[in-house]
Amino acid sequence: MSTAQPPTPQAAPAWQAAPGSAYPGYNSPIPVVRTHLGHAVASEWTKIRSVRSTMWTLGVFVLLVVGIGLLTAVVVSESSSDDGLSGENPLSFGFFGLLLGSMCVITLGVLTTASEYGTGMIRTTMTACPSRGRVLAAKAIVFFLVAFVVTLVSAVVVAMLDVALLTGAAEPSGGEWLKGTVGVSLYVALLGLLSLAVGSIIRHSAGAITIMIGLVLAPLVIALFMFSESLEDLRQALFEYSIPNQLSVFYSASLTDSGPSGWDPLWIALGVTAAAFAAAFALLEKRDV
Fold first, then answer.
1. For residues 199 and 109, is the Cβ–Cβ distance under 8 A?
2. How many CB atoms lie within 10 A of CB 36?
3. What is the tens place of the pLDDT at every residue in 8-20?
4. How many Cβ atoms from other residues are within 10 Å of residue 244's Cβ?
5. Which residue has better confidence, 106 or 89?
6. Which of 71, 146, 132 is nearest to 104 (CA)?
7. H or E segment at 262?
8. Dihedral sign, CA of 80, 81, 86, 91?
9. How many CA atoms lie within 13 A of 77 on its CB side?
10. What is the pLDDT of residue 232?
C-alpha cells in the first residue's frame, strides 16, 4: 500500500513577498526610493525649461536689458562730448533696460506658481509630491537660480558694452562693478521670487501680475501727484522706497538724496520676500488645491 508524499515546497513567485515582509501580498519590481528636495527640484527644473513661456519671457527680458542699455549708451555718446561724460558712471545706463525687463521676471515668477492653479496641474504636482512646502521650496530654488543667472549675464554684457562705448566716462570701481552686476541681479531675482510667492497666495495669474506691476509703479506715480505740503513726508517716503529708486541705488544714481543707499535695497527686498513666503507656506498648508 503506497503512502502519500507531502507536497514539495516551491519557491515563491517573483511577485510574491518573502515571509515576514511588511507587505505580505505583493513586492513591487520597481525599486522604492525615499524622495527628497532634490527630486522636487529636478521636477521643477523640467517644468520651467520645457514650457514655451519661459523661453519667450526670458528672451524678451534679455532683449530689453541689452537692447535698451546699449541704445541709451549710443544716444548719450553721440549727443555728449568726452568732457560731458567725465563724471558719469557708464554702468548706470543699464538701469532703464533692467527696470523694463523686471516686468518680464515678475511675469515669469507669477506664472511659475499661479499657472498651475489655472490649468489644474497643481493637483498632479501635489499628488506626486504630497509635501506642499517642498514643492514651493523647489519652485523658489529653481526660479531664483534661473532669474539670477539670466539677469547677471545680461547685466554683465550691457555693462561691458556701455563701458566700451562711453570712452569719456569715469572708469567704474570694483565696488561699482559688483553692485551694478551681482547686486542688481540679486535684487531683480528677489523681485521675481516675491512675485512667485504672490502668485502662490493669489492663485490667479492676471491678478498676481497686476498686483506686482502696481507694487513696482504705483508708489512712484502716486508720489508725482502729491502736491499738498501736508503730504510731503509721505511723498518723500514713496519716492525713496519705490522699486525704481531702489533699483537705481545699485548704480549710485538714486532719485532722492535720502533713503536707502549702498546695499540697503537688497536687504529690504530680502525681508519683504521672506515675509511673503512665510504667508505663502502657511496658506498652502491650510487651503485645498
1. yes
2. 10
3. 555 545 445 445 4
4. 16
5. 106
6. 146
7. none
8. positive
9. 18
10. 83
Please say whether the beta carbons of 96 and 72 come within 8 A: yes
DSSP 72: H
Q: What is the torsion angle, in degrees rounded to the nearest 10, for the CA atoms of residue 79, residue 85, residue 89 and residue 93?
A: 0
Rounded distance between C-alpha atoms, residue 80 and residue 168, angstroms: 9
259: left (phi over 0), alpha (psi -120 to 50) or beta: left
Residue 11 Cα to chain centre, angstroms: 56
CA–CA distance, 200 with 194 (Å, rounded to integer): 10
**What is the mean predicted confidence (pLDDT) over 74-87?**
67
Output the nine-digit C-alpha cell for 64: 530689453
**pLDDT at 91 exceeding the cut of 60:** yes
Give just the sign of the alpha carbon dihedral 21, 27, 33, 34: negative
Length of the chain, in residues: 289
Q: How many CA atoms lie within 13 A of 237 on its CB side?
A: 4
Distance CA 233, CA 81 (A): 39
Say yes or no to pLDDT of 23 above 80.
no
d(CA 265, CA 251): 12
Rounded to an integer, what distance in angstroms lies between the CA atom of residue 158 and that of residue 155? 5
Among 102, 22, 28, smallest CA distance to 58 is for 102
C-alpha–C-alpha distance, residues 217 and 176, integer Å: 26
Helices (H) and strands (E) in the chain, counts: 11, 0
| Spatial contact of 183 and 262, defined as CB atoms under 8 Å apart | no
Measured between alpha carbons, how far is 196 from 200 in angstroms, rounded to an integer? 6
Cβ-based neighbour number of residue 219 at 10 Å: 20
Distance CA 152, CA 286 (A): 36
